[in-house]
Amino acid sequence: xxxxxxxxxxxxxxxxxxxxxxxxxxxxxxxxxxxxxxxxxxxxxxxxxxxxxxxxxxxxxxxxxxxxxxxxxxxxxxxxxxxxxxxxxxxxxxxxxxxxxxxxxxxxxxxxxxxxxxxxxxxxxxxxxxxxxxxxxxxxxxxxxxxxxxxxxxxxxxxxxxxxxxxxxxxxxxxxxxxxxxxxxxxxxxxxxxxxxxxxxxxxxxxxxxxxxxxxxxxxxxxxxxxxxxxxxxxxxxxxxxxxxxxxxxxxxxxxxxxxxxxxxxxxxxxxxxxxxxxxxxxxxxxxxxxxxxxxxxxxxxxxxxxxxxxxxxxxxxxxxxxxxxxxxxxxxxxxxxxx
Amino acid sequence: xxxxxxxxxxxxxxxxxxxxxxxxxxxxxxxxxxxxxxxxxxxxxxxxxxxxxxxxxxxxxxxxxxxxxxxxxxxxxxxxxxxxxxxxxxxxxxxxxxxxxxxxxxxxxxxxxxxxxxxxxxxxxxxxxxxxxxxxxxxxxxxxxxxxxxxxxxxxxxxxxxxxxxxxxxxxxxxxxxxxxxxxxxxxxxxxxxxxxxxxxxxxxxxxxxxxxxxxxxxxxxxxxxxxxxxxxxxxxxxxxxxxxxxxxxxxxxxxxxxxxxxxxxxxxxxxxxxxxxxxxxxxxxxxxxxxxxxxxxxxxxxxxxxxxxxxxxxxxxxxxxxxxxxxxxxxxxxxxxxx
Lengths: 340, 340
Hints:
2 copies of one chain form a homodimer.
Chain A: E1 3-5, H1 7-20, H2 25-40, H3 51-60, E2 70-75, E3 78-82, H4 88-106, E4 108-116, H5 123-131, E5 135-140, E6 146-147, E7 154-156, E8 161-166, E9 172-177, H6 184-193, E10 202-203, E11 218-219, H7 225-242, E12 264-271, H8 273-276, H9 284-298, H10 309-321, E13 323-325, H11 327-338
Parallel strand pairs in A: 3-4
Antiparallel strand pairs in A: 1-13, 2-3, 4-12, 5-8, 5-12, 6-7, 8-9, 10-11
InterPro entries (chains A, B): Mal/L-sulf/L-lact_DH-like_ah, Mal/L-sulf/L-lact_DH-like_NADP, Mal/L-sulfo/L-lacto_DH-like_sf, Malate/L-lactate_DH-like
Pfam family, one (chains A, B): Ldh_2
GO molecular function (chains A, B): oxidoreductase activity
């Protein structure tokens, strides 16, 4: 049986718990709203399902409830944030909001974030930009899960890239992808259900393609060597730029103990489309062209689905139903509710 | 029998021909050096093999030998270039060099280019940045060859992305990929040789995977829906930003007549790693970390190949052998040589 939870119930209980942990109200808001944003849009692995782990990280000290965010801005459009071990959603929200602010004035902003933690879904932050008519781009490195071609051990993270941009009339281009062929959670679902893994998803300990769940050792990169290259690209633009550990030096999200910093790096890029408009210098042209492109793409076939379509449909459905959660999460949440 | 041509022979003959067409010497240099750069590194489809077509474009007026490049710089780091129908290599070289100049001062630069043409390989330009210790990123839209999931007609270009960054001791991270699973030229090679197309490369007129060369209708996106999303991302950051035709509205490179403008859009992004360095603010830390990452990756297995490795090996080999060319190209070049 699937249990459903309403947004407001989660908000109330989690805010209360975060307040007991002494997290500032605004940061708690970023954290809860970010996870709800993912869950409402159907990105269940990167939504409220992360709450038990995030709370363990805060309680154990792996992430700090009251980080001392240190900003440097050597030049107007170049920003660096040492997040002092903040929860990743908190760090990335601060970074993106500042990037938006700078890009609103200077047309472009790049923020390099170090000493952060797992930040849920990259699209949480790119949405913040799109809501303000900016193009938001977000990258992060992450612990190694993806194997190299001709390599045996996992070496690259699933290193996500997201980009969101607003069209006219509520249209949204909303891309958020991992640089692995599929996410680890998809493989794990096959592991849990005892189903064979489709070819091209996973490698065994010898680096060969495997469909056997108990031979799983590493994920396959998106489309082979190209995805491997994109994974490196993200790592270079995040951790190499910010001087933080390589993907294969990072501890794993779900590995206890929860008391050591992980030092994950993110990079936020925000562009103001109006500044690049060749004619009238307003954002309206860009928005209407983006909507036109997406409308034309939808005319190409009944089943054509564009980045963001499924998430929008899911959000509408879940506004009615609430967010479906596993029995384990439901019980965890009930317990948390009793103490808050 | 394979024929080989030496760089200097090509330089001499093509410069002379471009000078007859009244192209300014500096622009001719960009064009010839860009194509040689690709050919020497083994990117044969995006090197001197393009010369016959590029010369037809210049003779026919599709691209202009003496374009009136129009720059706008609404804010220090945001630049727009209307290339006035310049040859793509010329337009993109000007754009990247200006981006490097701006990023050297401001840390970041974004240049949106409109009204350009085919620009050969994106890595020609990202190399320019890496040679000056900057991170160079280059995107372009292109005529539609990639089919959408559940769509029948080609809708997206192979919309390339390249990023190059310099490490210490001559190390180079050098990624240049199309957002299709494979390039059209790879499929064409199978067509020419009458060999079946591997599964996952191409679609027939109904949008289904096909291995039959005479059923080829569109390329498959890199890794399926993710590559489709990346193709849209590139198009949005190039043509939607610059207000130029969508991929599926562009004429095809090899379609005569050569007298109508194509209006391709590129985007150059340059970052100064020094500006993002959290400690000493010099580029040395970034360079040494990048080399460290690549060295660690190479230790993962004997056959591990990183973006740029094959190209570097090819360049060494061709410095000795010259550039291998097809009999057709060789004859074309001999004829051109006689008149120059």
